[in-house]
Amino acid sequence: MITLPNECYYPIFNNLQDNYKNLLSCALVNRQWCRIIIPILWSNAKDHLNDMRLIKIFLLMLNTKEQALLIPFNIILPSHPVPLFKYASYITSINDDLDCGITRWLRYNKYETGRLKNVVKFSLISMFLRTNKSLKCLSLNSNYSNKFGSERVNTLLEALYDNTALNTLDLYNNKIAIILD
């Protein structure tokens, strides 16, 4: 069977980027199509960040430094294998729906949502900034009035500094209080 080069498939599948059902069906055809389609599907995941299943996938992708930020809060991370794709690296925009997804994941796992939501969010955003070279927009409309240690804030600031692709950073309605550890 003769296969087309990937360059021929990109414009075809990009025209279907708003039709998740058809794209997902195409991703199941073969491995070549799957490798092309998964980045397209996940590039517009911002509308699905409120799904706690995505939060679980993202938590599997945290490195040891980001996981260490969660240890003092006794958060038990999922113990599933690391995903086949680096899904977080395909996302181009993160909005406030991430808060809803984190809250749902915390409630489902019987955690208090108050301060833990912001701690988990700090770790996930650090991971997004570390792994994602195509992230263009990061919108944080949260009030971080809870006290965070300098280590957590420094991890986030380092990740912001290292990410060169970010075009838009919205920090409206934010109050970040830092206590030096």
From TrEMBL:
<feature type="domain" description="F-box">
    <location>
        <begin position="3"/>
        <end position="44"/>
    </location>
</feature>
<dbReference type="Pfam" id="PF12937">
    <property type="entry name" value="F-box-like"/>
</dbReference>
<dbReference type="InterPro" id="IPR032675">
    <property type="entry name" value="LRR_dom_sf"/>
</dbReference>
<dbReference type="InterPro" id="IPR001810">
    <property type="entry name" value="F-box_dom"/>
</dbReference>
<protein>
    <submittedName>
        <fullName>F-box domain-containing protein</fullName>
    </submittedName>
</protein>
<dbReference type="InterPro" id="IPR036047">
    <property type="entry name" value="F-box-like_dom_sf"/>
</dbReference>
